[in-house]
Amino acid sequence: MPGLPLRPRVGVVKLTSCDGCQLTILDLEEELLSIVEAFDIVDFPEATSSRSSGPYDILFVEGSVSAPDQVERLAELRARSTLLVAIGACATAGGIQALRNWGEVGDWAATVYPDPSLLQVLDRVTPISDHVKVDVEVRGCPISPDQLRELLAALLAGRRPQLPDEAVCLECKRRGLTCVVVAAGATCLGPVTRSGCGAICPSFGRGCYGCFGPREQPNVASLVSRFELDGLAPDEARRRFAGINAWAEPYRDAIPRGGGARPELAAAGVPGETEAADARR
Amino acid sequence: MVTAAPPSFLPRAGLDRLIALLRDDGRRVIGPTVVDGAVAYEEIASTADLPLGWSDEQSPGRYRLVESPGPGRERAFGYTVGPASWKRYTFPPRVDIGRGRDADGTVTYEPVAPEPDALAFLGVRGCELAALRIQDRVLRDGPVADPDYVARRRAALVIAVECTVAASTCFCTSMGTGPEIARESADLVLTELDDGYLLRSGTDDGRRLEARLDPRPATDDEVAHARASVADVRRRIGDPVAVQGLPGRLQARLDHPRWAEIAERCLGCANCTLVCPTCFCTSVTQRSDLDSRDSVAVRGWDSCFSGDFAKVAGGSFRWRRQDRYRQWLTHKFSTWVDQFGAFGCVGCGRCVTWCPVGIDVREELAVIAPPAARRPLPMAAAAAPGDFTPARVERTWPETPDTTTLLLTDVDPAIAHGAPGQFVMVTRPGLPAVPISVSRYHPEGDAIELSIRAAGPATATLSSLAPGTPLGVRGPLGRGWPLEAAEGRDVIVVSGGIGLSPLRPAIDALLEDRPRYGTVRLYHGARTPNDRPHKDDLATWAARPDVEAGETVDRAGTGWTGPVGVVTHLFDAGRWDARDAVAFVCGPERMMQATVSTLEDRGLRPERIHVSMERHMECGIGLCGHCQLGRFFVCRDGPVFSRAELGDAFILEGV
Is B548 helix (H, G, I), strand (E, B) or coil? Predict the structure, then answer.
C-alpha cells in the first residue's frame, strides 16, 4: 500500500447502488470526529456539500458499473486517485442488480419503464474491478462498520487491513453458535462465504445467504451436494447462490440457467461466459 | 499416598445441592444446557438449567436433540458431547493479550494480565478431560507457558461425568480417553444412575466437596450397575480407529490419492478445527484507534483451513484444500505425537458430527493409513482345525444344474446364530474340509442352509448326501457383511450366479429389519435362466414394494423375458443418487471388478463398497497360510472386505 500523507484527502463516490454502504461510514458515529480530524473529506455527497474533482489520496467507490457513462467516469476517478477502495457488494461483485445479467436488458426495461428508449444502460452489470485496478475491496451488503473502522485505522497505521479471507463458519463458531446446517438442516452458504458480517443470520437460526460473497477456495459443488442430500432439488440448491453476490465467481457458475428468476423471464437463458460454464456441467 | 475411598452415592436431589455449594463458594458453575437445539456449556444456576430428559442423535454431518426414551427420562447427562467444548472457557475464542502505547515519544508494551472468574465445570466427559490434559501439555507444560491459559485453567474446578450413552460418532475407546474416568483425573467424578449419582473424588478440593454433600456409601449393586452401564458404552463404540503405528503409517502416505478425493468433499470451512476441543491455532491481530497511538493485541481462534493461515507475501504455502486437510489430519494423528508426546485427538467425534458434509476421520484414516492386519474374531464353535461339531442333513434340493442346497439341522447354536457372510468348514470322515458360505440361517431351529457347487469330487460328494446323513461342521468363521455400516443408508446388493448365496443371509437381515435402511436395491446376474439360484427368493424379493429388484442373464433361453446382458447394465443407467449408499457385491472376480468400477463411477466411496473374496481356505483361522491376499488372510480378515482396504490387491492379478 502506498504511503499516505499526514491528513489524506478522501473522496466517497457512488455508481449504481443504494447508498447503504456510504451510510455505514456515517454510522461510525463515535469515531466521526476522529475521522474528520485524521482525514480530509473533500468529496462525500451523502455527508457534505463540498465538492472536489480530486486528486484523492483515498477514494471510496460504491456501486456497480451499469451505464456507459460510468465506465468513463470510473477511469477518470481512478486516474485521480492514489488508493481506490471498492466498498460493498455492488462495487465488488455487481450487487443484486447483476441478477439482470441472466436476462435480456430490453425485456426488463420494458417491464419497468413506460419509455425504455430513454434508458442508457449497459447489457451487463459488472463490478468496478472489471474496469479499473482496485486496491482494496471491502465486502458486504452493506459493508461492516467494524471492517470499515479497521480499514481506516490500518491506513493510518500503515499496515495491511485485517479483512480476513475466511469462512463465515469461523465467526459463527467463535461466537459459540450452533451450526444450523448440522443441527437443523438449514441451507447455509456460510462455509463458502467470506466472514465479516459477524455471522448474523446463523445467530437467528437461519442460513447465511452469502452477502459477503465467496471466500477463497470455496467448494460450492460440495455444498450444493449437501443441500441436495437435505432434500433440495438440484436447481433449487444452485439457485441459493443467485443473490446479492450472484455475479461473483464461483457463485455465478453454480447458478442455473435463468439466474433463479421466474421461468418465463428466464427464457432468454444465461449470457456470455456462464453459457460456457453451463455447457461444462 | 491417600487410599482411595470407596464410591459414595448422591441421590438425584443432591445435584442441586452440589450446584448450590459451588455457587456459595463464589464459583460460576458452567454446565450443559440446551441452546438452539444443541447441548451447550453455559452458566447454570440449578439442575433446572440442565438438559433433563434430553438425549442426542449424532451421525456424520447431522445432530438432533431427542427426548430420551424409556426409564430414566429425567437423566441430566443422557447425551454425549455437543458442539461446545470447555476450551471456550480455558482458551477463549478471543482474548486481549497485550497493549501497545506510543505517548510523548515513548513506546511501551504491557501484557494484559488475565483475571479469570472462579469457575466450576460440571459434566466434563472422559474425552473432554483428555482434551484439557492435551491443552495443558501444549499451553501450560511446554518450555513457555501461556499465562492466560494457566490462569483460567487454575481457576476452574472440574467435575466429570462418565458417559452412560454413546453417539455413533464416538471413538474415545480407540484414543484411550474414555468412557471410563479415573478418579485422579478430575476433582470429582459422577456416574449417573436412575435415581442418583455415584461419586468419587480425586483431589483434596473434590474430597472436601464430597464431604460437604454428606453422601451415603454406595451399595455394591450401585457400583456394579454404574460399571456395567459404562462398560456397555465401551462395547457399543467398539474400536473404530486402529491407533497402533498410526503416526508412522500416516507419514508414509502423504502422497495418497485420497487427499485430493477428500478435497472434493471438504468445504475448507474450518468447522472441524473450531469444534475440536484440542485445536489451539490462533492468530494475533492488532486493534488500533483511529489516532493509532494505542493498540491492543487480540488473540483469536484461527484455523489451518483458513486462506490467510499459511500465507506469506507470495501466497499461501498450503493453497489447496487437500493441503489443508492433510495438514490437519496428520497433525492430529501423527505430528502432534512428535511435538507433544500424545495424539491431538481424543475421539470425541465432534469433527465428524459437525462437518457440514459429514467427512468422517475414522473412515479417512482407515483408507489412507489402514492397519496392517485386522484383529481375529473370537471363535465360536470348534475353533481348532481338527475339531468339528456334528450336524445332520435334513433335506437337499437342487438350485441350478451344478449347485445343491443342503439344509443342516442339529447344528451347534453358535453356528446357527452366525452372521451374514460368514462361512463354515464342512466335512465327512474321509473327505477334506470344504469352506462353504452359509446361505441362510434358521437360528430358532438350530439349522443352516449351505449351497454347494459341485466343483470337484468332495463338493460333488457333499452335494449328493442323502437326508439323515451326519457330518461335521466348524464355524462360524471369518467376517461377514457390515450391516451396521448400512444403517440409515441406501443399500445396493449386486450378485453374480451362485454369488447370491453368501449374500442371501444379508438380504434376509435387510428385509427383516427393513426400516433401519434406506432404499434397498437388489441386482442379480446369471449366465442363463437355468443358472439362477434361489429362484423362489428372487421372485419374492422382486414382488416386494419396498425393494427395487432387477435381474439379467448373459444368454436368454426360451421363456426368459427379462433383460439380457451383464449385471452392471441393470444399474449404470439408473438415475438414483449413490453417493450416500453402501454396496455389497459377490460373484466371480471379473464381475465384482466390473461392478465395483461402475459403482465407483456412480460416486460410491470405496470404503462403502464391500466384496466377498474367494481364496483357498483350509484352517479358517489364519494359521495355515493358504488364503493370503496381500496383507490379509481371507479366512480370518475376510472373506468380506471393503474395496478401500483391499487396495491394489483387488485388481492386481496373481496376488
Answer: strand
Hey, which residues does A11 pair with through a beta bridge?
A: A43, A59
Q: What residues of A are in contact with residue B88 (Cβ under 8 Å)?
A: 176
Give the tens place of pLDDT for each residue, B159-184.
999 999 999 999 999 999 999 999 99
Q: What is the pLDDT of residue A49?
A: 86
pLDDT at residue number A265: 43
Using a CB-CB cut-off of 8 Å, the residues of chain B touching A233 are: none
CA dihedral B325, B328, B333, B336 (to 10 degrees): 150
**Spatial separation of the C-alpha atoms in residues B271 and B359, rounded to whole Å:** 11
Please indicate whether, in this complex, the C-beta atoms of B270 and A166 are within 8 angstroms of each other: yes
Residues of chain B with CATH 3.40.50.80: 483-650
Domain ranges of chain A: 9-157, 168-280
Q: Does A221 touch chain B (CB under 8 A)?
A: yes
Judged by CB atoms closer than 8 Å, whether chains meet at B93 and A166 is answered as: no
Residue A7 has pLDDT above 60, yes or no: yes
* pLDDT at residue B292, rounded to an integer: 64
The Cα of A226 is separated from the nearest Cα of chain B by a number of Å equal to: 6
Q: How confident is the model at residue B18, as a pLDDT?
A: 97
Instruction: Find the helix or strand (DSSP H, E) in which A274 lies.
Output: helix A272-280
Locate the chain B residue with the closest alpha carbon to A220.
B267
Strands (E) across B125-223 are located at: 156-162, 188-193, 196-201, 216-217
Extract the residue ranges of chain B whose pLDDT is less than 50. Answer: 1, 375-376, 378-379
- B389-477 topology per CATH: Elongation Factor Tu (Ef-tu); domain 3 (2.40.30)
Does A263 have pLDDT greater than 50?
no
Pick from A23-27, A219-223, B207-211, B372-376: least confident: B372-376
Question: Which residues in B lie closer than 8 A to residue A164 (C-beta atoms)?
Answer: 306, 308
To test the contact with chain A by mutation, choose from B58, B269, B291, B320 the residue with the greatest count of A C-beta atoms within 10 A, namely B269
CA neighbor of B449 nearest in space, from B382, B372, B501: B501
- Residue entry with cell 464353535: B381
Q: Classify strands B311-312 and B54-59 as parallel, antiparallel or unpaired.
A: unpaired
Distance CA B354, CA B262 (A): 16
- Give the C-alpha distances (Å, rounded to integers) separating A11 from A2, A60, A73, A264, B61: 17, 6, 14, 43, 47
What ipTM is given for this predicted complex?
0.89
Q: Cβ separation of A34 and B63 shorter than 8 Å?
A: no
B412 closest CA partner among B379, B439, B385:
B379
Alpha carbon distance, N-terminus to C-terminus of chain A: 40
**Closest partner residue to A165 among B84, B301, B307, by Cβ?**
B307
Using a CB-CB distance cutoff of 8 angstroms, which residues of chain A are in contact with residue B94? 174
Distance from CA of B303 to the nearest CA of A (A): 8
Write the pLDDT tens digit of every residue in A39-49.
999 999 888 88
| H/E segment holding residue B97 | strand B94-103
Measured distance CA(A155)–CA(A4) in Å, rounded: 8
Closest Cβ opposite residue A170 in set B270, B290, B291: B270
Chain B closest-CA separation from residue A187 CA (Å): 11
Q: How far apart are CA B271 and CA B110, in angstroms?
A: 33
Model confidence at A91, pLDDT cuts 50, 70, 90, reads very high
Architecture of domain B483-650: 3-Layer(aba) Sandwich (3.40)
CB-closest option in A152, A178, A228 to B35: A178
pLDDT at A262: 46
Provide DSSP, A107-128: HHHHHH-S-GGG----SS-B-G
From chain A, pick out residues whose CB is under 8 angstroms from the CB of B61.
181-182, 226
In chain B, residues with a C-beta closer than 8 Å to the C-beta of A192 are 267, 269
Q: Which of A166, A177, A191 sits opposite B267 (nearest CB)?
A: A191
**A9-157 topology per CATH:** Rossmann fold (3.40.50)
